[in-house]
Amino acid sequence: MLHGDCVIHTKDHKQGYLLDPWHYLGPKRRMLMEESWAGLFREEILNNLPAHELAKHFEDGIGRPTKELFTVLGVQILQHMNDLTDDEAIEQLAFNTKWHFALDIPDESDESKYMSLKTLWSMRKLIIDNGIDTLMFNQTADTLSRVFSVNTSKQRLDSVHIRSNMKRLGRVGIFVRAIHKFMVNLKRQHGELFDSLPQVLVDKYFAKKSLSCFSMVKPSEAERTLATVSTDLFDLTRRFHDHPEVMSMSSFNQLLRVL
After folding, report:
1. What pTM value is reported for the model?
2. Is the Cβ–Cβ distance between 220 and 226 less than 8 Å?
3. How does pLDDT run across 153-198, given as a tens digit for each residue?
4. What are phi and psi of 2, to 5 degrees?
5. Element holding 6 (H helix, E strand)
6. Which residues are paired to 7 by β-bridges?
7. Which of 41, 93, 102, 208 is 20–30 Å from 72 (CA)?
8. Residue 36 confidence (pLDDT)
9. Are 5 and 61 spatial neighbours (Cβ–Cβ below 8 Å)?
10. Rounded-to-integer distance, Cα 49 and Cα 41, Å
11. In this structure, what DSSP letter does residue 7 have?
């Protein structure tokens, strides 16, 4: 569907196929697939994800079409369900047949089965900032409790824990990109001050490729990593708090806002 100048890409996963796109699995593997977690996810969870809520935030957008929004939300759940780093989640989306079955992606196009780190990060931030993570996990929990006839008078904290990890991973990305941008600008504008930074800090955040290192953080490691990067950011702001020329930099003020 089309909203303004941005194409919102969603698919009706309840609609069947004229020809079975999973026929290559064969009857025995197909049965295994349908009886696995992937079959349950595809039949009971995927089409109930709040893609319509996510779509609302693209109505004023411009440019390229969105990724298929049920896939976007499904990847977030599967990443945390399997405690995968961002890089690992992208690889599973690209090559794992169970993920393809669970997310109802039968075609082999990059458009359907590839997601960049930037897209994963930006979608995660959008989901968290607008409370869609809470809605998504509540709906999933309700669906599973109905399917398995779970007594909801005894609550578990799994979904709360997963939502907390999603937020931490999102914050790690914000902290790291803010520090990187500040360091790049500091080297450009005040080389002597940049040279005074501890080498371990420069090695961690300055190089462009250092950003990708933080995409290898597992959700279960997010809390510890967030503690480290937030300490580094705090130390940077304290280090330059009495340098007027640095304090006037927009990237330094961004550090303060993040802090």
Report:
1. 0.68
2. no
3. 555 545 555 566 777 888 888 899 899 999 999 999 999 999 999 9
4. -115, 125
5. strand 6-7
6. 2
7. 208
8. 92
9. yes
10. 11
11. E
